[in-house]
């Protein structure tokens, strides 16, 4: 259950990633957490775990959106 505590702590953390490398590290960490929670979810099908994964996925999308930057108009 340590992965759950890490996931909850990550979710509560303030997201001020100033450099690209910090964003990359955060993206990898949240991906690891999502996959870890998913393994636990497969065993007991707890709906609260699904909600946690959804919230973490939303955070991951925001980080990756910022990583990709703005698209250039053609």
- The coarse silhouette is elongated
Order of helices and strands: HHH
Tally of contiguous helical segments: 3
Distance between the termini: 49 Å
Largest sheet: none
Strand-pairing-aware structural class: mainly alpha
Q: Which bin fits the share of residues in helices?
A: over 70%
Mean pLDDT: 88
Radius of gyration: 14 Å
Q: Proportion of β residues?
A: under 5%
Stretches with pLDDT under 50, minimum 5 residues: none
Give the tally of β-strands.
Answer: 0
Question: If you had to describe this structure to a student in words, what would you say it looks like?
Answer:
The chain is mainly alpha-helical. Helix content is about 80%, strand content about 0%.
Outline of the structure:
With 74 residues, the chain is mostly helical. Helix content is 78%, strand content 0%.
What descriptive keywords fit this protein?
74 residues, mainly alpha
Write the layout of secondary structure elements.
Blueprint: H1 2-12, H2 20-44, H3 47-68
Helix pairs in contact: 1-2, 2-3
């Amino acid at each position: 259950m340590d992965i759950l505590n890490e996931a909850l702590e990550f979710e509560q953390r303030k997201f001020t990633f100033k450099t690209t490398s910090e964003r990359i590290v955060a993206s990898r960490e949240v991906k690891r957490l999502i996959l870890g929670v998913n393994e636990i979810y497969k065993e007991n099908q707890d709906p609260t775990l699904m909600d946690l994964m959804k919230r973490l996925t939303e955070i991951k999308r925001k980080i990756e959106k910022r990583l990709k930057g703005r698209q250039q108009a053609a």
